Amino acid sequence: MSNATHSATLLISAPDKKGLVAAIANFLMTYNANIMHADQHQDNVEGLFLMRVQWDLRGFTLPMDDFAAAFEPIAREHDMSWKVSLSSRKPRMAIFVSKYEHCLVDLLHRWRIGELDCDIPLVISNHEDCRRLVEFNDIPYHVIPVTKENKAEAEAEQFRLLEEAGVDLVVLARYMQVLSHEFVTRYPNKVINIHHSFLPAFDGAKPYHRAFARGVKLIGATSHYVTEDLDEGPIIEQEVTRISHRDEVDDLVQKGRDLEKVVLSRAVRWHLDQRILSYSNKTVIFD
Amino acid sequence: MSNATHSATLLISAPDKKGLVAAIANFLMTYNANIMHADQHQDNVEGLFLMRVQWDLRGFTLPMDDFAAAFEPIAREHDMSWKVSLSSRKPRMAIFVSKYEHCLVDLLHRWRIGELDCDIPLVISNHEDCRRLVEFNDIPYHVIPVTKENKAEAEAEQFRLLEEAGVDLVVLARYMQVLSHEFVTRYPNKVINIHHSFLPAFDGAKPYHRAFARGVKLIGATSHYVTEDLDEGPIIEQEVTRISHRDEVDDLVQKGRDLEKVVLSRAVRWHLDQRILSYSNKTVIFD
Amino acid sequence: MSNATHSATLLISAPDKKGLVAAIANFLMTYNANIMHADQHQDNVEGLFLMRVQWDLRGFTLPMDDFAAAFEPIAREHDMSWKVSLSSRKPRMAIFVSKYEHCLVDLLHRWRIGELDCDIPLVISNHEDCRRLVEFNDIPYHVIPVTKENKAEAEAEQFRLLEEAGVDLVVLARYMQVLSHEFVTRYPNKVINIHHSFLPAFDGAKPYHRAFARGVKLIGATSHYVTEDLDEGPIIEQEVTRISHRDEVDDLVQKGRDLEKVVLSRAVRWHLDQRILSYSNKTVIFD
Amino acid sequence: MSNATHSATLLISAPDKKGLVAAIANFLMTYNANIMHADQHQDNVEGLFLMRVQWDLRGFTLPMDDFAAAFEPIAREHDMSWKVSLSSRKPRMAIFVSKYEHCLVDLLHRWRIGELDCDIPLVISNHEDCRRLVEFNDIPYHVIPVTKENKAEAEAEQFRLLEEAGVDLVVLARYMQVLSHEFVTRYPNKVINIHHSFLPAFDGAKPYHRAFARGVKLIGATSHYVTEDLDEGPIIEQEVTRISHRDEVDDLVQKGRDLEKVVLSRAVRWHLDQRILSYSNKTVIFD
């Protein structure tokens, strides 16, 4: 592997105590790391130290194959959880979609112009509707219908495709099906969903109808990691837009589409850029 | 009464049907009204027509004492609810406050520089804390302690003061007490509250603590008319601000203060300017 | 022409005086118009009355072919400028694009899902780059290279295509060429441009680079009608987003794309919905 | 000096190179610093490393009187500019005001409730108007009229008062006078101004009138350090709010007041919290 123009990103969480920054900085300096970005956070309530550091691999004297062995003693000493990623290894992302295509169109365009640094080996849907669009982007499109009766088999088929494709991240781009316990536990913090409300307001079904009925003056959208508790996973990003008494449900749906696209795409980009650490059902988004 | 530089504002709601605008416009034209602002809205779901029209009283040939008699036949024909207000008669506003003074400071300053066009005959509190500030503004300050035991007598004393002062509008500027059924029904759509969350999220107590615990990325504030159902009244205005993982509960409280001030003051100004029509637990805010 | 499910929209501007609303309301009532939306505005500085009224053509007893003859006497009496549009006649929109495709992708998707109610008979570009995308949407794609030398001939060819296609509206979706005086005067208030800054800040070239150099904390985008004075035409819509010291020029470009898409698409939708009146180098956006 | 409950904040800028973080972290660890917050930034365009680190002084084994001597060798080795501040030493802030009191009211209230951690030894004005308000807050109020003729003497009197009071920061809370070259060079990055527009748009006089004339859809406010070039100093914070065709100049002024208060108070708080580093006519705002 040539390290030219490549970088490594290290995400760390540990019980907060003195000397953590020095330990990490000294380790990296030992191998002549050229740090490009570093950001850290201390959660004083949980007593946690969280850090993201990215460095240029040019001139880094530790082969990345030996990184784990070299870093592990320090990690153990400070009780760190850690994960390192290489920019040379593109994440592989699957998109799940039903019939609404606006988030899918948006994600595919961002991917095509290089805003999302990943491979997209497949799109999975329970409907035929988006095939032409997906295939226009030269991505395989798999239709797996889901019913109450076949849910287990449908997911088995999804797992087979995801594993075959070596998928790291699943994005639910308005995929109108609830994932099983098994799905969620297989992909912890690896499934991102977009919910079309400002959670925790209007969790569950038909949020735009309920926002209209309640007479709120702003509507929102929320992207989050999927956990077993529906709409209760760690929130990654939220955004709102103003509505007025002149807006009917259809107007809310239309204005909401713009929110959903932006809020989902930010979450996906931050995840792909290794900028999210999730703990205690919250997220840290590193700058 | 001299009409010079004065205006009248008419708020109307009626079952929607053809000819409503023409009926109102012709009535006003008959008496030579010079319309300054007009705004209307049709709620297609409820089948309602809602209108606000404001006109200069100079040159208006119908004495306002005779307005009701002249307009009533048209109102009856079209099944209108209506209310007319004169700019020459300033609304009288009472402010209720507990210990947090930021909304009070804000309202008093806006009032002093003419942003809120009303008289403030009194401020009522269950604590002594804000006396010096209120009296600096030459407004009488009444302390009425409220406990579980004396709640009925305390409200009786409040009613006496409000009636004596001829109060039209009660503003709860972070008044930390729940009003009784009797209070709310005495002042329908005449009590404005500020809730320190983006309702319906985090209704009830300690919203900033709960927002922090849930890990939301935006916090909000909501002003609404007080009804019998706590935090369920018609929403007048909402606003949000961004927070991050770096913000602790105290930061939320601090950022929230700026939201609360802006959101409450807009609601009060719009109410004083006769720009709000409330129906079906929603509000129309006329431009 | 069957009027079933169709509507008409009337835009009016006139010197402000008493009786205008009554005159218009009475005219429409005479022919049994069922008003769906009405909004009006008085510009007190300019002494102008501006109105938009939309009505259902079912039950309207005046054939729309006779509308002009019937309305003209009223218009003349009150010195009105007016324009009526029928929902049955879809506007025809041309899109001009260079190499950046994000606004084009966005407009085409909104059009495909019905958010933009128009026909798109052609896309014109000075480059080949977007051909595949446009043709995927079954829209003819015309490449007309533009150089300093051939500018007049290039525009002549553009005019020929626009006229042949009966185009009502030209949208410059990041078309990186300045239009001639002749172009602008041929299509007054009919060419919408997106400028990638918060005008009047950073008008002219390379606004993201200049915003970065100046160290602003927010960047913006502006959609406007094109006039002879570059970047000086009537502003239709603006929006901003927050940046920080961590954002480099490339980040501004990326964040700006999301603004440009939203700000341009709103302008186009409002124009297509006959919701914009332009005067004194400003716009009124009717609700 | 007791270090109990006190903290120190170190701001550093240096040419970017390897080992800076390790050098600083090791220095602090040597003296057993308990780091509370750390944030750093690399400006890749300028090749600069910028850092803010705050630590608890309890248990810190280096007396702060010896800090400079101990840190200077490291600073020299890495060519650092640096500045350390102690929370035990409250900054001293002077406020300059003319007749508009909204920013002054806002700052004084934030100060009273502890949002601004500073002493305010005096307020200086060229008018009597705000005396009662300032003295209500038990702060000395000095009126120094300024005319073309007496400008030099007036500033001399201002300098005398500022020096006598040991002022670290001057806040221009809508002070409608231009400061001299001498004033600005005496207090580099120590004078904060609020400009009532979204700079660089509408720099100079009467920005609300010019925003109205241009027909923009958003208005803004900007806080910045004052430099010799009027309205050209490093921007600290900006915010905008939406306006519509219904807003006249007076409405812009009213909406703008809310922006000015928020944008100025954020700048002041960040400055007092040692969170701003200024370079190349830009600011870094540390989290």
Automatic annotation (TrEMBL), chains A, B, C, D:
Annotated pathway, please? Answer: Purine metabolism; IMP biosynthesis via de novo pathway; formate from 10-formyl-5,6,7,8-tetrahydrofolate: step 1/1
Q: InterPro entries, per this entry?
A: ACT-like_dom_sf (IPR045865), ACT_dom (IPR002912), Formyl-FH4-Hydrolase_C (IPR041729), Formyl_transf_N (IPR002376), Formyl_transf_N_sf (IPR036477), PurU (IPR004810), PurU_ACT (IPR044074)
The protein, known as: Formyltetrahydrofolate deformylase
Q: Which SUPFAM superfamilies match?
A: ACT-like (SSF55021), Formyltransferase (SSF53328)
Q: Which Gene3D superfamilies match?
A: 3.30.70.260, Formyl transferase, N-terminal domain (3.40.50.170)
Active-site residues are: D231
Question: Which species is listed as the source?
Answer: Crenobacter oryzisoli
Q: Which top EC class is given?
A: hydrolase
Q: What is its EC number?
A: 3.5.1.10
Family, according to the entry, reads as follows: Belongs to the PurU family.
The entry's function note states:
Catalyzes the hydrolysis of 10-formyltetrahydrofolate (formyl-FH4) to formate and tetrahydrofolate (FH4).
Catalytic activity line of the entry: (6R)-10-formyltetrahydrofolate + H2O = (6S)-5,6,7,8-tetrahydrofolate + formate + H(+)
Q: Name one GO molecular function term.
A: formyltetrahydrofolate deformylase activity
Gene designation = purU
Question: Which Pfam family name is an example for this entry?
Answer: Formyl_trans_N
Domain ACT, by residue range, is 9-89
Q: Which UniProt keywords apply?
A: Hydrolase, One-carbon metabolism, Purine biosynthesis
